Amino acid sequence: MAGMIELTGLTKRYGEKVAVDRLTFTVRPGIVTGFLGPNGAGKSTTMRMLLGLDNPTAGDVRIDGKRYAELKDPLKYIGALLDAKAMHGGRSAYHHLLCLAQSNGIPRRRVSEVLETVGLTAVAKKRAKGFSLGMGQRLGIAGALLGDPEILMFDEPVNGLDPEGIHWIRNLMKSLAGQGRTVFVSSHLMSEMALTADHLVVIGQGRLLADTSMADFIRENSRSYVRLRSPQQERLRDVLHEAGITAVGRGDGVLEADGATSEQLGELAARHQLVLHELSPQQASLEEAFMQLTAGSVEYHAHTDGGVPQTPGAGWGAGVQQQKKKGV
Ligand SMILES: Nc1ncnc2c1ncn2[C@@H]1O[C@H](COP(=O)(O)OP(=O)(O)OP(=O)(O)O)[C@@H](O)[C@H]1O
Predict the structure, then answer these.
(1) DSSP string over 271-293
(2) How confident is the model at residue 88 (pLDDT cuts 50, 70, 90)?
(3) Is the CB of 17 under 6 A from ligand 1?
(4) What separation, in Å, do the N-terminal and C-terminal C-alpha atoms of the chain show?
(5) pLDDT of residue 86
(6) From CA 152, how far away is CA 182, in angstroms rounded?
(7) Strand extents, DSSP E, the chain
(8) Predicted confidence (pLDDT) per residue in 105-125, tens digit
(9) Does Transferase appear among the keywords (predicted)?
(10) Cβ contacts of residue 82 below 8 Å, gap of 6+?
(11) pLDDT reported for residue 302
(12) Which of 88, 210, 237, 242 sits in a 20 to 30 Å window from 185, CA-based?
């Protein structure tokens, strides 16, 4: 299958530091795969090894069965945004892309096409040096798209962008995946991944912690409940209680009920002629799921070293690991 990225036991050590620790997973075409982990988890190092910018200490990463160095015209296989500032600022956006196209056997017409795609046509002749962070990101993405590759890889693409820019990047990633391409995107923001990714690879301290669909991840890690809002909150709570349903008050007439569907709750309220202003099933966000996992890590650490996590990253990773043992 075209557009596959396969990591097998991928490992990177810097002296004593193990930045990437025996990572084995596959990134598939047609979906957005989120690569999630806290700062310092090893995401950038993994992506650099994928592009042949760093050599693995052990293990292997292959693109359609080949190492990056073995790819003929690599920009036609894989386009990447690693560091948006890594360009010659004195050149215009057009010239920057033209140089990239000419040195990679890509036709000149692609330059105008990708400038159009990323919305930079109007500033194409301006020097990249004067670009805002958002424009720089767009130019970096234009470079990634230049070779019309099957695989797109973005390292923290929404960092520092305004809401309009974030929205644009999210839609772009989804539409690229919708075209059947492989989209591999890193983030340390769980909430961001929840909105964008179909599949999730989670790492912490260089190790694989989860490799799962987003829907399964949320289902297995988050609480679902039903939110009810009623001007008769006290009576509603009593009725739920009598039916053996736990409901917690959240103020403003809101109750959160566990262990019953919104259909069951709606029918129960109707039987007791209770007015409902809201009846909505809720699923905790990915962010909440991760907060739960982080909370679990404190307990986990108490078993091993008797203390709380030294860093958010350490706790976060350990928490997910603990969940993983339960079968994430
Ligand atoms: N060239 C290097 N020399 C020594 N240590 C390094 C080097 N590059 C990365 N590291 C270390 O490897 C670990 C993983 O770093 P990496 O940048 O890959 O993480 P990351 O998940 O991308 O984090 P961030 O979200 O902060 O970019 C970190 O502890 C980092 O300090």
Answers:
(1) HTT---SEEEEEE--HHHHHHHH
(2) low
(3) yes
(4) 27
(5) 61
(6) 6
(7) 5-14, 17-27, 32-36, 58-63, 78-81, 151-155, 182-187, 199-204, 207-213, 224-229, 246-249, 254-258, 278-283
(8) 999 999 999 999 999 999 899
(9) no
(10) 44, 47, 48, 51, 53, 153, 155
(11) 35
(12) 88
Residue nearest to atom 18 of ligand 1 (CA): 42
The answer, yes or no, to whether residue 278 has pLDDT greater than 50, is yes
5-219 folds as: Rossmann fold (3.40.50)
- Domain ranges in the chain? 5-219, 224-283, 286-325
CATH 3.30.70 fits 224-283, yes or no: yes
Sorting pLDDT into bands at 50, 70 and 90, what band is 299? Answer: very low
Taking the model in full, what pTM does it have?
0.75
In short, whether 41's Cβ falls inside 6 Å of ligand 1 is yes
Please check whether residue 114 is in contact with residue 142, taking contact to mean a CB–CB distance below 8 angstroms.
yes
- Pairwise CA distance, residues 64 & 62, whole Å: 6
